[in-house]
Predict the structure of L-tryptophan decarboxylase PsiD-like domain-containing protein.
Amino acid sequence: MAKKILKEAESEENQKLLPSVQALKNLIESDRYLYNVTQMMFDEIPEKYVDTPMGTPQVRNYKQMLLMLNRIIQRAPEFNTTGLVGTPINEILDYPMATKAGYVFFINPKINEKLRDILNYWGKFLQTPDSTYVLNTSKNGWLSDYALNEMAKVADGDKFTTIFKCTSEDREKHLGFTSWDNFFTRLFNPGIRPVQDPDDPDSIANACESAPYRIAHNL
């Protein structure tokens, strides 16, 4: 996804930025300190990292970053087999965030305020029916046989629709999911993940967005 977006961004350098992205651009370019930090954030990326962790070309300046952000937040994440599948923004910022200047950049309150607005815009889009276009059976669609089998496998089950609550069996109707967010935060079917002491608010079954790393017996 990022490779395609980068090509589009480079071919349309004069594209109109969304208000939230334009606001971040204005902040960077109106504050000499932030401008220098932003430039350094990309300059400090070692030259050997020509590609992102997903194998796509690494963004090398803030203008590219803004153009890509502008496109990413108008789209829903497509299916692929990498660990960064649902976080295309993190894909383009993974290396810049790890630099000394990147640390300074991302802890700046003014920057975080603008990034919050960008993420809120994306979050609202992902709650709309327009975001369901990636819920299809194509190679990069979330409802292909391969994608459904992989998600069922990760959930330790045999069939996606048996594990997760779907209001429709018809993949042409997105299995009943009304948005990307609705799909991404899907519910388990009753009894699939029983919780001990479900009425006890102090009972924690598993930390949010985590999974067991390793189990060993008879040590």
Remarks:
- The mean pLDDT is 87.
- The first helix runs from residue 2 to 11.
- The chain has two domains: 2-125, 131-184.
- The chain has ten helices and no strands.
